[in-house]
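U., I forgot to send this yesterday:
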Amino acid sequence: MNIAPLLHVPVSVKVHLVTVVPAFFIGTWQIFVSRKGVTSHRALGYVYLGLMTITAVDALFIHELNAPFGLTPIHLFVPLTLFGVVRALLAARRHDIQGHRNAMIMVYVGGILLAGSLTLLPGRILHAVVFGN
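Result:
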């Protein structure tokens, strides 16, 4: 692992990483370990959804020069993530446990696992960080 490629990236990429890394760990904890419905689950859930909202909005400021309008297919995860965040909050407030669970899994799988996997493709910054040039 080599963090040198991260030293010269735009601020939006740094903000993206600073929000998505803790969101990954919190999301993993929330889905697989935490006891659902308790106060700590709710509190961490709000932190997680806040981090994912910041991550998604910040992604709109990360551009690729050789793409139309600077947007790539990975940017399709922005509305997916934001839609999932809203669905998760509304379902939780309605005490719709299944709807909340489905929305949270959609945000985690789509917004973190799938989008995160795409950032590891050759030519992307995180590919250089994780695998070297």
